[in-house]
Amino acid sequence: MSSDAGTSPASTASGSSGLWRTVAEIERYVATDGWGAPLRLFALVRTADALARDPDLAHRLPANVVEEARADAGHLTSVEQDGVPAVTDLDELLGQLAWPDGVDGAALVVERILVPPDAEAEVRAATSADDEGARARALAAHPLAEDVRIAVGVLRDGSHECAVRSRSKDSDGEVATGADLVPGLVSALQATLQD
Question: What is the average per-residue pLDDT within 55-60?
């Protein structure tokens, strides 16, 4: 899973705020396709390093991105990955994923249904532990269920950022952001960068 589909508009500055901006831009980029989208996966590379490895890249990137990368060695560019298989078990996919050394980080965007913990416990008690399909349908039909789009980005140095958009508040100004909004997903994505 290393072929790229080209760079997304999410190319941005370095540091924690740079990663935050990259994750926010990736989430907005994916949001333009609407709801019901499959998982999207991105490699994150330091733009200056990529330009040093491939000088022709300067002709394929917007001029302002090249200029920003030359001014900031930590500038990030996201590269969307083609051929991500449709999965029902995200942990299984991430457990099989590894990035080459030239990739400085990774980001993914996935849609999920969230319910309050009390509602989830109620559904678990009312459904068979063996029937995950029935449980998923019951959670999705629960009156407190909320569709959300989750974007997570991680770097090899351990930096991570998250963005969460709910369908009921579907606007760029309503996206929740923070480093630790989905710690389990952050840890699973960070594991894909380890040797």
Answer: 90
What is the DSSP-derived secondary structure letter of residue 103? -
Q: How many residues does the chain have?
A: 195
Residue 177, strand partner residues? 163
**Exposure class string for 139-166: b at 16+ Cβ within 10 A, else e:** beebeebebbbbbbbbbeeebbbbbbbe
Helix, strand, coil percentages in the chain from 3-state DSSP, rounded to 5: 40, 25, 35
Spatial separation of the C-alpha atoms in residues 67 and 69, rounded to whole Å: 5
Structure tokens at 32: 């333009």
Name the residue ranges covered by the structural domains of the chain.
4-191
Checking 70-73 for CB contacts under 8 A at 24+ apart, the result is 72/13, 72/14, 72/18, 72/48, 73/14, 73/46, 73/48, 73/49
Band (pLDDT 50/70/90 cuts) for residue 16 is: low
